[in-house]
Amino acid sequence: MRKKISISKYISYLFLIVVSAIWTIPVIFGIGTSFRSQTEVVNEGFRLLPVNWIVENYVKVLENTSTAPILQWLWNSVFIATTHTLLVVIVISITGYGYSRMKFKGRDLLFFTLLAISFFPNVVNLIPSYKIIDILGWVNTPWAMIVPGLAGMGNIFLVRQFMKGIPMELDESARVDGANDFTIYSRIILPLIRPVLIVCALFSFTGSWNDFLWPVIVYTDVEKMPVTAGLLLLQDIYGNYRMIGQLMSSAILAIIPTLILFFFAQKYFVSAINLNSGIKG
Amino acid sequence: MQNKRNFAPIFFVGPHIILFIVFILIPSIYGIYASFTKWNLVADPVWVGLDNYKTILADSDSTFNSQFLNGLKNTLLFVVLSVPLMIIIPLMIAVSLEHKEVKLKNLFQTLLYVPGLISISAAALIWSLIFNKQLGIVNNLFGSEAVWTTTQPYAWITIIVVTVWAGIGGNMIIYRAGINGVSRDLYESAEIDGAGSIRKFFSITLPSIKFPLIYTLVMTTAGAFNVFAQPLMMTSGGPRQGTTVLMMYIRDLAFSHGESIAGMASAMAVLLGLVILVISAFQYYAMSRNA
Amino acid sequence: MKKGLFFVLLVAIITLAGCSGSDKNTIEFWTPLTGEDGAYMDQLVEAYNETEPEFKVKHVVTSDMYTKMYTVLNSGKGIPDLSIIHADRVPSFVKQDLLEPMTTIVEQQSELNQDNYLDVAWESGVIDGTQYTIPLDIHSNAMYYNEDLLKEYGVENWLDDNVITFDEMLSMEGKLAENQFIVNDALMSWVILAQIQNLGGDIQVDGEPAVNTPEMKQAIEAAKQVADAGLMTPYGEDGYLMFQSGDVFFSTDGTWSSTGHAEVEGLNFGVTNIYSFEPDVYHNRASSHLFAMLANEDRTDEKEQGIGEFLEFIRQNSLVWAEAGQIVASTDVVESADYDQYMQSFFTSTPEQEESLYIYTYEYYPYIQEALDMYVADLVHGEMDIDEGLAEMQKFVEDKVNEGTLDVENAPDELPEEE
């Protein structure tokens, strides 16, 4: 018995260490490359770490504040992603409540219809989407990136399912005490669904941070751009990568804020997360 | 009473529906409308009825027909190759992480999540250098003589590797959360019955995380159908258009150098959307019924 | 009831949102110049704004400019006052009525005339006698050579006539050390397009696209012969980086790459023409960055005058642009002594050299380029039968031409005739 647990423990460790190594080596290589000169990149074979460490790639990226204000971009991204995430949490929790704990005609049909529509690829919807943003006067404003994503269905799907697992008796007894839907939502349900909201928040944050197709279309003002769209401006227009190190250094700079957030947030959800609590009842 | 009930849901569901109508429904309807037209993105679309669909589906002489079939075939191949890995690997990681005696959980989790944060162009460049025949590690280490990005099946392998490397973080967290929520009592009573790790996994863990599995399967599959950045950047769709996925053809039709052929692109996108829809619905029903 | 409420909310959202108008006294200037190029253009714009013009220029770099152009043209709002487009876009833009002619600007600024620009760049903006663009540069396919390798193998004399021939390259078959190559396959489609000119061919016959031609076949076969002899960097390997690491004699990339190659210490390189069949017939497929005004009724005459002044300033001061590795289109700049320090001055050093720069202006050229990009690597490296590939490419282009909606406005009338 005791022995069995040990064996599975060692297998788990072995697996985790191997997978983490495979996953981490390219990252280290990328970080290493961001400290290498072009000469070294083309002349040395594969080396995890540079022979000569140089910081010029970073200096160049940070110095270029007129065409590539990367710190401003990072700030824009932080603002956009944070606001977006907060709004997502509000929208999906309210909407999820509606689709799981309220009864109205055609509720599930409506939900699955919306879910189905949202599966259509949005590549050719670019023009009408832009037109709508333009009508709203949101071109070159953070709202162009904050609001449209709130319409997504994926997170609502997750929240709805989670809420369905919370026993209806909770609502019933609160209702007997005179609580209305809003009170039930805010006092009873919201605290219970915190774990799933944290997961959704994380996905929304990284999703918003990494989106690069849409921001290229809705931003022209270099000062207003989020960092993913901005990074594309640093890349070579001819598709040759002239400066491999610089591309890497800018990519590394761009992940630092999300990384910090992830590191702190993870403490939260590892202890708090319990996706099934509701489902199990 | 009846009135009251009908009114309240509007406040909970209504705001999102407005957002949905403005930012998803209207653009989608326009996209579907465009699929019945000839359109160059600038002038007004000209209605052509089912012509685009006829060309794509029935005219075997047409480039668009062969592009659609080839693109769909490659997209399906990508889905079949990538989705199981995107489910199984994070699930195994999550199970290992949730092992009660494993420490440093946060460290492992962070290391595995980081690749998903790196921009796709930088990620593609990192892996191109790793797979590079002269400079790279793969050939030096494994003594392979192949040029990975232009020889099958290696071209697909490079694409799948980048995708899985960057894409498992989200599912890993969902599974971890799911497993974390399984009651400890269940495991303990199973242990008393003498169940081994594998049996515990199949008879307790898997059934308990049924919804997370359905959810990730449906979402990962839908996402995989929309793939285009990884093949574009790793193989440019080669060799012999063997890795050109449907989204690459659609984007080329709509946004390439020549005059845009957006109506045809829309029709292909709508057809792709229908495929996604049918498959997701099938997955959802199959998974919800069984187990 | 429900619908009414939604509608009210929708209207509220739309009206709440403000309007953002562009400044009346700035020239909004869009370019696709990402990376270093954008920084050089910024320098030029900044220098111009320091002259305190009535209309200041605001430079906007866009990484996906043409998609963005379509979106603003479609919505009719936010159209830039001035932009830089590529030469191969001009015919289709003009045909779709998307460009404003430069006629009034050319009238006001007398120096903006053909004599002051490289001919090929100027002419790429003329459609049916109307001037639609003013050129900034020519960016051309170019062949870099590794001086040390040429010396090592004692073949520096290849450079004597400034043209490397297929025969010269093929003469090295079996003579190279392992993992060394004569030439890489960078920008292969551009190289093929140059060979078509070298062979006296064309990509159109009477306005119809002609891809499946004897010249195209010969061009691809010649390149394939080099690849088959093991002299070309293998399919899928990064020939650009291999040139930088000193294992390849020649790199067929672009004039703009000189700055990238210069980053590599210890790489001694120079520039010459793209290889050819005969030393006396040679071409380099080129394109051009052109200033153009997208059609926009809101552009005032005063603003157009301001644009003219900016373009004249560029004409006089675009030496900075040479830093980006481009062949500057203004002859004042090209003929100045300072310009000689730049490697790309090779391409304007003699009249013959200047004539080697070839810009395709056929209206369906972009589709042909797209087809070449999709197929040429597979054909040259023997992954696909050449005849089969050429037939598919021809079909590809024809289908796209037929689907293109160029004549869409007349479509109802013309359709019966076309059938």
TrEMBL record, chain A:
Its main location: membrane. InterPro entries: MetI-like, MetI-like_sf. The keyword tRNA processing does not apply. Signal peptide: none annotated. Keywords: Cell membrane, Membrane, Sugar transport, Transmembrane, Transmembrane helix, Transport. The chain crosses the membrane at residues 12-32, 73-97, 109-130, 142-163, 184-205, 243-265. It holds the Pfam family BPD_transp_1. One of its GO terms (cellular component) is plasma membrane. GO terms for biological process: transmembrane transport. It is a multi-pass membrane protein. Residues 74-265 form the ABC transmembrane type-1 domain. It is found in: Cell membrane. Belongs to the binding-protein-dependent transport system permease family. This is Multiple sugar transport system permease protein. It comes from Gracilibacillus halotolerans.
From TrEMBL, chain B:
Keywords: Cell membrane, Membrane, Sugar transport, Transmembrane, Transmembrane helix, Transport. The keyword Cell membrane applies. GO terms for biological process: transmembrane transport. GO terms for cellular component: plasma membrane. Residues 72-283 form the ABC transmembrane type-1 domain. The chain crosses the membrane at residues 7-33, 75-95, 107-130, 154-174, 209-229, 261-286. Signal peptide: none annotated. Belongs to the binding-protein-dependent transport system permease family. This is Multiple sugar transport system permease protein.
Automatic annotation (TrEMBL), chain C:
InterPro entries: Bact_solute-bd_prot1, SBP. It comes from the Bacteria. Keywords: Signal, Sugar transport, Transport. It holds the Pfam family SBP_bac_8. The keyword Transport applies. Gene3D superfamilies: Periplasmic binding protein-like II (3.40.190.10). Residues 1-17 form the signal peptide. Belongs to the bacterial solute-binding protein 1 family. This is Multiple sugar transport system substrate-binding protein. It comes from Gracilibacillus halotolerans.
